[in-house]
Amino acid sequence: MPTDTTRLRAPRIIPAHPQWAQDLALRDAPPSGKADSWDELNHLDEVYLEFSMASDIPRGFMLWGGVACVAVGLGLSYLLFKVTTWEGVANWMVGLLIVMWFVALSHGIFFLRFDLCLPKDRPVRFNRSQGKVYANSYVWNHNPFGRWGGRVKVFEWSTLQAEITKQIGASGEVVTQRYALELVACKAVSFEAVDRFRLQHGAQTTLEYEEQWEFLRRYMNEGLVGLPLQNLRNQNPSFIDCLLFAMPWFAPTEMGRRARQRMRGVLGVLTMVLMSLLFPLWLLFGIGNFIVMRLAPEASWPAGVDEASKSSS
Asked: Which of 158, 180, 207, 244 could be joined to 251 by an S-S link, Cβ 3.0–4.6 Å?
């Protein structure tokens, strides 16, 4: 198996991810570059670290979408009731109102269920003592009445590699791109993918994910020795932190101070300026974030897995 750790022009993982952007350093390569968790750690000691995925999906947006859809559905219910009492109403009109009513309510249920039933966090535990990675995930689909639930996958650290993928979106004449950090389980002594899971996504540059992967590699390969001091994530954010979750630079809290420290270069300043133009809208979403973070369930692990993932043997 090749051991070159330089940035490749073609993906090393087979089959290639359709949105592949960049391979990261090999899992067992010598340390290189800055190591930083970017404040995404829930726990850190010699036995295991817990990497948060709470920021992977912004919370609060779908809550208001669900409320709006349910309100429309209730309005259509009233209109449908009134229409059925009118004489000479065409059947196609009644049918159309029924379809619109069903679409509005089903979307409302989906949005509300997603934001309020999805756990606050779906953490991943990297157990250095065992050489294993426990990935906590929540399986959902677009059926608002379907079966949703959590599950855990266990991977051997010795099989994992990392890559960055890129998602490109467009709205009118504006094109945006976001990156994601993907961990790939490969067959022994090869780069043939067996399974994948996304650890983080949403960053506008690759720097954050390069430093996070470097931190995970160093921890799993060498332990805490030589790692920079890390701040653990605040798992119970205050009202102000929730209110300004989309614009953390303005928060007069520890979260805001850390966000301001991480603003780098022209891109960081430009992002802050552009986000400020929609300040009232972000505040509305911030209120939704506060509601969701108070009502959504805590992260959970299947029976026995919680203890096993934290054990040193």
From this structure: 244
